[in-house]
TrEMBL record:
Binding site for phosphoenolpyruvate: R48, R84, N206, D207, R217
Single GO term (MF): kinase activity
The protein's name: Phosphoenolpyruvate-protein phosphotransferase
Residues annotated as the enzyme's active site: C254 (proton donor)
Subcellular location field: Cytoplasm
Protein's UniProt keywords contain Nuclease: no
Organism: Bifidobacterium simiarum
Residues of the full protein shown: 254 to 562 of 562
GO cellular component: cytoplasm
Domain PEP-utilising enzyme C-terminal, chain residue ranges per copy: 7-292
A biological-process GO annotation: phosphoenolpyruvate-dependent sugar phosphotransferase system
Record field: catalytic activity: L-histidyl-[protein] + phosphoenolpyruvate = N(pros)-phospho-L-histidyl-[protein] + pyruvate
Enzyme class: transferase
Keyword Ribosomal protein: no
Length: 309
């Protein structure tokens, strides 16, 4: 079995009829890049940047974040590194951020909502991300999006931050890509409008399952009611992919469901372009994709291959 997996290293991830799927890694810490590379990740599809915040005693500085992002970008070379902006909230609490108690933290003040109402916090991260983009193939990804306005507001802050860096003669990738996490039902319903604002979609099936089925992802007692194989969730995934392709952008999955081998054929059939999974899941998925008999035409992606570069 191990030998079979080793034989998959260096191979392309494509179906038997030649359609390429990107297989990226999910990471939480810069040091996880070692495992991503050892398992032949073709990129980082989700860098959960909140670990930098959860493990700090105080707000992580621009310099600290810059070093972390740059290290990941450098080690990945040309390969894409998709960094998700801050996704803390009432369930992922940090001592130095005095968040009020909430009865329903999953429905509360978190992620992009914090970034848009406390732009001074967002700007520190954006400066670090943009500066690091000069050292590799970094893309920015926004979590918990529910409306077009949120994306426009975030883009405005990103543009202002770029302008600030230009004024200081600090280099960054002027063409940095910006993607949206599809993890709320609202974002699926608005997917056509959102696709027009973004370079790619990545579906967060953990939260999408929670919000679609009204099942708290932290509650272990919900059992079969919290089934991510529910047709409601799978239809949402299909709707997001179809909207992305109508607008010429690629769509991946970075939630846990992406690594579920019983769904690989379905995802290929739906037309998924990228799967981002924990490093250990990459080679088994590559094996499954290479032996899949699902046939499907490649979508036309406006920014080239399903790759944020
Ligand atoms: C998700 O919601 O599926 C996701 C990838 O993000 P997280 O698990 O970090 O909320
Ligand atoms: Mg999520």
């Amino acid at each position: 079995h191990l030998r079979l997996l080793r034989e998959l290293k260096g191979r392309s991830t494509e179906t038997r009829d030649g359609r390429k799927i990107r297989l990226y890694a999910n990471i939480g810490r810069p040091s996880d890049v070692t495992a991503a590379l050892a398992n032949d990740a073709e990129g980082i599809g989700l860098f959960r940047s909140e670990f930098l915040y959860l493990e700090s005693e105080d707000w992580p500085t621009e310099e600290f974040q810059f070093e972390a992002y740059r290290q990941v970008a450098r080690r990945m070379g040309d390969r894409p590194v998709i960094i998700r902006t801050l996704d803390i909230g009432a369930d992922k609490r940090v001592g130095y951020f005095d968040l009020e108690h909430e009865d329903n933290p999953a429905l509360g003040y978190r992620a992009i909502r914090i970034c848009l109402t406390r732009p001074e916090i967002f700007r520190v991260q954006l400066r670090a991300l943009l500066r690091a983009s000069a050292y590799g193939n970094i893309a920015i990804m926004l979590p918990m999006i529910t409306s077009v306005q949120e994306v426009r507001d975030a883009k405005r802050i990103i543009e202002e931050t770029k302008e600030e860096l230009r004024g200081e003669h600090i280099g960054f990738n002027e063409h940095i890509r910006m993607g949206i996490m599809i993890e709320t039902p609202a974002s699926v319903i608005m997917a056509d409008e959102l696709a027009a604002e973004a370079d790619f979609f990545s579906i967060g099936t953990n939260d999408l399952t929670q919000y679609t089925l009204a099942c708290d992802r932290q509650n272990p007692n919900l059992g079969r009611f919290a089934d991510p194989h529910s047709p409601a969730v799978l239809r949402m995934i299909r709707m997001a992919v179809e909207a992305a392709h109508r607008h010429g952008i690629w769509c991946g999955i970075c939630g846990e469901l992406g690594a579920d081998p019983s769904l690989t054929d379905l995802f290929l059939e739906i037309g998924i372009d990228e799967l981002s999974v924990p490093p250990a899941g990459i080679l088994p998925l590559r094996g499954a994709i290479r032996s899949s008999t699902v046939i499907r035409d490649s979508p036309v992606i406006r920014n080239g291959a399903p790759d944020p570069s």
